[in-house]
Amino acid sequence: MIVTTTTSVEGRTITAYRGIVFGEVITGINFMRDIGASLRNVFGGRSQGYEEELAEARTEALDEMAQRARDMGADAIVGMKMDYEVLGSDNGMLMVTCSGTAVELNQ
Description:
The protein is 35% helix and 39% strand. By secondary structure, the protein is of the alpha+beta class. It has a four-stranded mixed sheet with strand order 1-3-4-2.
């Protein structure tokens, strides 16, 4: 499945638009990662735990969106956009969403 932020796929022609597809993932951050992130806030540095959680959520959201496009008979997703949000009363949840247009391409 081709996924691109552009409105076209170079060298291919869009032959049909199947509709808008979404991928959404909401994940909690565990307390051990919170402790590590708090220490890094004080001493500086990157939070590997949060970065890994974010990368995993991003991959899951993209995979979910691609599967929904496949289910619609699409070959690609164009105009993909991704967004991040922190949720929950204690900001303990991370939401990653992506959307794009599922399309069929010429062979």
